[in-house]
Design goal:
By secondary structure, the protein is mostly helical. It has 29 helices and 8 strands. It folds into 4 domains: about 35 residues; about 300 residues, SGNH hydrolase (Rossmann fold); about 40 residues, no CATH class; about 200 residues, Alpha Horseshoe (Serine Threonine Protein Phosphatase 5, Tetratricopeptide repeat), CATH 1.25.40. The strands form 2 sheets. The protein has a 5-stranded parallel β-sheet, sandwiched between helices. It has a 3-stranded antiparallel β-sheet with strand order 1-2-3, with no helix packed on it. The chain is extended.
């Protein structure tokens, strides 16, 4: 039976002055009853507003912390895009920090840019993937996207072609999915995806040093929170704590050697299957969103070095044979001319290789199945590159290492993408005849922008890559100077670049200037044109190159550079020299057009007015010619040629009246 209100009141009144035993005796109750009620007196139910405040305070704290971190510009900007010029944007070089937590040197893209506001005549393509999509080791010039861009420019000269490759080394489908969300608002005509090799060891992969676990939902949730400074703040705290216990050796060596955390992932094991499902799930999400937003996608299968890359890690496990044994059998079949059987065995050996740097066959199967499921084109680069190889099995003929194509290999993949876009009716128009494809390809390859120095850079990158695990034992590494012996000017500057002593852009500027000083204008022009192709928005390169060509009286080559510069943004220098060269060539109306434009931009250049006078004189507009020569003399009174021309014009004008 419960306490009466009178008893409760008595206990509450006397509990601080008298013992529970005394109160129990006074009220004729048990001591336990009294003690229990006294304990309950200390537990009072909080009012409702207390709980609201308890929830609001942490929320306010989090908001204030986020605002403060932003106010003090804490950490890095993780935004996907950054302004490059007032009218163009490109991939933010710090965006890789979204995916790399413990790696200090994060990868960057090949620095493609595109217009903030898409022009009406633009054809815009985005490329997503890892290092093989970016064109390693021939970056930034050697990717298949560069071939595609040049061919599109060849076929559609009246179009503003924008092929924007935002692929990053050592990333996988998580980055592809994350980047795709940032592409949607930029009106792509088509998105090309060449990814899958890095699914296990790429950033956030199931076997990666940068893993956040195996839950795809959790990893994508963390990525979605990257826009908040608070997320970065917490990451930095965790990373700082972990770095106290980290092995410094983890930060040494190539990025490839550092990314593999779980170095043995057996075929069809739980982690192997998680990697496949991770890829399939993320790419499915991309394709579903693309379907919803009506964005065209083209996927590609992935070729690997089959016959010339032995398995990295070979063990007999889970009742499966060792990769090394199967690889040897494949070599035997190849030697015997049994190409079909050898191909099967080489692929099986690749799948049994427990070090998952090459995409397994199940990745290519997933790509083909996703293509069918979503009814989208699939470029079968794997089959195509194998068809171009002896016995139908790809090796060092088209691969530089275990999975990165040669320069010719990248061009073939670019060619295949172009033809697939054509067949799928995804190009601006199908006005061109497909019978011209061979001719287009030959012109594109012949005009490919790639120098001797870039070849040396690629060669040296591969030497350094293979001077580390897993190609050799870590204890067998040699110094770069022991492996690389530069023999030429191009080699020497290439070596400076791969040793991080000079930036790529400065390497080309340096070698171009040396060639110019030597009087080797052809090689000077080669490197300056490469800089213009790579950095079309750096207007300085156009003006410097054109000016030096003009000094050497190579006017037609200067004109090509000047016109490209003019199409981006006319200036006084460009219009002056386009007009002057036209005057030199006898194109008087064109000369007047550009020279007048130049004078409207800069009205203090006497030479412009002098040349205008000459152009109008040739057009028999003598009075206008005289007006312009007078302007030239107003600016520069001691202009001998202008004085001479003025005298001639005054005689002519006087004679016409």
């Amino acid at each position: 039976m419960g306490l009466t209100n009178k008893q409760k009141h008595y206990i509450a009144k006397h509990q601080k002055k008298e013992s529970a035993e005394k109160i129990a005796k006074d009220l004729n109750l048990s001591v336990d009853e009294v003690k229990s009620y006294i304990q309950n007196l200390g537990v009072t139910k909080a009012p409702f507003y207390f709980y609201i405040i308890a929830v609001i305070i942490p929320v306010i704290f989090i908001i204030l912390l986020e605002v403060s971190l932003r106010l003090f510009n804490y950490g890095y900007d993780y935004s996907q895009w950054m302004e490059v010029t007032p009218t163009t944007i490109g991939l933010n070089p710090d965006v890789g920090r979204r995916y790399f937590y413990s790696t200090k040197a994060i990868p960057e893209s090949i620095q493609d840019v595109f217009d903030k506001e898409k022009k009406e005549n633009s054809y815009r393509v985005f490329v997503l993937g890892g290092s093989s999509a970016a064109g390693y080791p021939f970056m930034p010039l050697g990717s298949f996207s560069r071939y595609l861009e040049q061919r599109l420019q060849l076929v559609y000269p009246d179009k503003k072609v924008e092929v924007v490759n935002i692929s990053l080394t050592a990333v996988n489908s998580y980055t592809v999915k994350d980047f795709f969300n940032g592409i949607i608002d930029h009106d792509p005509d088509v998105v090309l995806i060449y990814a899958g090799h890095n699914e296990f060891y790429g950033a956030l992969g199931v076997g990666s040093l940068e893993s956040l676990g195996t839950s795809r939902m959790m990893v994508n949730l963390v990525l979605s929170l990257n826009d908040y400074k608070l997320t970065q703040f917490l990451r930095d705290i965790i990373q700082g704590t972990m770095s106290l216990f980290a092995d410094e050796k983890q930060q040494s060596g190539t990025l490839m050697s550092r990314m593999a955390d779980d170095q043995s992932i057996p075929l069809d094991s739980e982690k192997f299957n998680l990697g496949i499902e991770q890829f399939r799930g993320n790419i499915s999400d991309v394709l579903e969103l693309a379907e919803e937003k009506n964005i065209k996608i083209v996927l590609s299968t992935l070729p690997s070095n089959l016959k010339d890359q032995a398995p990295f890690i070979s063990k007999e496990e889970n009742n499966l044979p060792s990769a090394a044994d199967i690889f040897k059998k494949a070599q035997t079949e190849l030697a015997a001319g049994n190409c079909e059987e050898a191909n099967k065995l080489f692929r099986y050996a690749k799948d049994l290789d427990m070090l998952r740097f090459r995409s397994p066959e199940k990745i290519n199967t997933a790509i083909r199945e996703l293509g069918e499921q979503f009814n989208i084109p699939v470029v079968d680069a794997d089959s195509y590159l194998n068809e171009q190889s002896d016995c139908g099995i790809i090796g060092n003929n088209l691969m530089t290492d275990h999975l990165h194509p040669t320069l010719r290999g990248y061009q073939l993949i670019g060619k295949l993408f172009y033809e697939t876009l054509y067949s799928a009716n995804l190009l601006p128009s199908k006005s061109q005849d497909s019978s011209d494809f061979k001719f287009q390809d030959s012109l594109t390859v012949a005009d490919y922008h790639f120098s001797e120095m870039d070849s040396s850079i690629a060669e040296y990158k591969l030497i350094l890559l293979k001077n580390d695990w897993p190609f050799i034992d870590r204890n067998s590494k040699k110094l770069p100077s022991q492996l690389i012996k530069p023999e030429s000017l191009a080699d020497s500057i290439a070596f400076e670049y791969v040793m991080d002593k000079i930036e790529w852009i400065d390497a080309h500027r340096k070698i171009a200037d040396i060639y110019f000083q030597r009087g080797d204008l052809d090689h000077y022009l080669e490197h300056m044109e490469i800089l213009i192709v790579q950095y079309p928005i750096v207007l300085e390169f156009y003006n410097i190159t054109a000016n030096r060509l003009i000094e050497q009286e190579r006017y037609q080559e200067a004109m090509q550079i000047l016109k490209k510069r003019y199409d981006i943004k006319p200036d006084a220098f460009t219009t002056k020299w386009i007009g002057t060269i036209n005057l030199y060539n006898g194109n008087n109306h064109e000369a007047v057009k550009y020279l007048e434009e130049s004078s409207s931009i800069n009205s203090s250049d006497a030479q412009v007015y002098y040349n205008l006078a000459g152009a109008f004189a040739r057009l028999n507009e003598f009075e206008i010619a005289l007006q312009n020569v007078n302007k030239a003399l107003e600016i520069e009174p001691d202009y001998p040629s202008a004085h001479a021309l003025k005298s001639q014009l005054e005689v002519i004008v006087k004679g016409t009246h």
